[in-house]
Specification:
27% strand, seven-stranded mixed beta sheet, five-stranded parallel beta sheet, binds NADP nicotinamide-adenine-dinucleotide phosphate, globular, 307 residues
Length: 307
């Protein structure tokens, strides 16, 4: 099968398209024929080892990812595809099932034509109204946004400011906060993304190229930094007394589960949530896809079609 590996940290050119043996599912696994995966900012961080944050966080990441070279050679933390075969003990899925999944807990592997996943993993039947390309872009950003908003205990009628509203996490957070949690959303984004963020459900917009959100008079029950680029002190400045500050880097614990994937599928099928797709690349164009995401300005998600 065709797959993408990297054996050293570095620029997008360290990614190589190679041939590898097709994996065989174990007793409790399904073999998925991957139709689409994505390039997230997380993939580019793991490829380059340019880990944001203080030194101890960078050290911990280096130990997790591999000191001298990457331990996990195939990136791609989310995918959508069709179940091709199943292990003998599998009961939840059968050949032909259209699925979408997170590969975060199984050492990644979306950048490949086939991937084995445990049936008890973060895996669910794909939303019926999405293509494989669209469905691949749901797990990471969707579950992260959902869990952060749940952890913040967002309530109907509350006012929330979402910083970084045009990214993968941000575009899901704006839709979930407005349509599922029924909160009043203020989205912070740049001029080019104002209409997009409004169309996703933000009632108010702050264009960060024109205005400092922390200098405004408005106050919020929750401030969610969905891109991790606002200063916490500035964010806390616009909170009401007793308000909650959420940061995508510290508040998303517990997001990855099959239950959360199924929950997102229901919202998508009910027309309350949709993935925003910026660009699509093929697996052979993986280097260009990483170059684009490296710039830090994608709108929503970048998809890689595999088959
Ligand atoms: N995506 C996932 O699956 C996932 C899962 C867990 C955690 N995370 C973490 O969550 C964070 C965000 O990830 P993401 O995938 O949502 O990022 P992303 O999609 O790569 O973010 C890019 C977006 O952020 C906006 N942006 C860039 N700089 C900004 C700034 N200074 N102020 C406001 N907006 C800015 C950009 O819009 P402009 O160019 O218009 O500014 C662009 O639309 C990352 O740290 C990531 O590691 C992501």
């Amino acid at each position: 099968m065709k797959t993408v590996i990297y054996t050293q940290y570095g620029p997008p050119e360290v990614l190589q398209v190679v041939e590898a043996p097709k994996p065989l599912p174990k007793e409790d696994e399904v073999l998925v024929r991957v139709h689409a995966t994505t390039v997230t900012i997380g993939d580019t961080i793991m490829r380059s080892l340019r880990v944001p944050g203080p030194w101890w966080q960078r050290l911990a990441a280096r130990i997790y990812l591999g000191i001298g070279k990457p331990k996990r050679r195939t990136l791609g933390m989310e995918l959508a595809g069709q179940v091709e075969s199943t292990g003998e003990a599998v009961t939840r899925f059968q050949p032909g099932d259209p699925v979408f999944a997170s590969t975060f807990a199984v050492d990644f592997g979306g950048y490949a034509e086939y991937k084995c996943l445990p049936e008890t993993g973060v895996l669910a039947i794909k939303p019926s109204n999405l293509s494989y390309a669209e469905a691949a872009a749901v797990p990471g950003g969707g579950m992260t946004a959902l869990q952060c908003l749940r952890n913040g205990n967002l309530q109907a009628g509350q006012q929330i400011l979402i910083y970084g509203a045009s990214g993968a996490v941000g575009t899901y957070a704006v839709q979930l906060a407005s349509q599922h949690f029924e909160a009043e959303v203020t989205g912070v984004c740049s001029t080019a993304n104002v209409e997009l963020v409004r169309s996703l459900g933000a009632t108010h917009i702050v264009d960060y190229t024109q205005q400092d959100f922390s200098a405004a008079e408005a106050r919020y029950d929750i401030v969610f930094d969905a891109v991790g680029k606002a200063s916490p002190a500035q964010a806390k400045q616009v909170l009401r007394p007793g308000g909650t500050y959420l940061n995508v880097h510290t508040t998303s614990d517990g997001s990855d589960s099959a239950e959360n994937l199924c929950f997102l599928k229901e919202l998508i099928e009910a027309g309350k949530l949709r993935p925003v797709i910026d660009r699509c690349y093929t697996l052979d164009e993986i280097v260009e896809a990483h170059r684009y995401v490296d710039q830090g300005h994608k709108r929503g998600n970048v998809v890689v079609t595999v088959a």
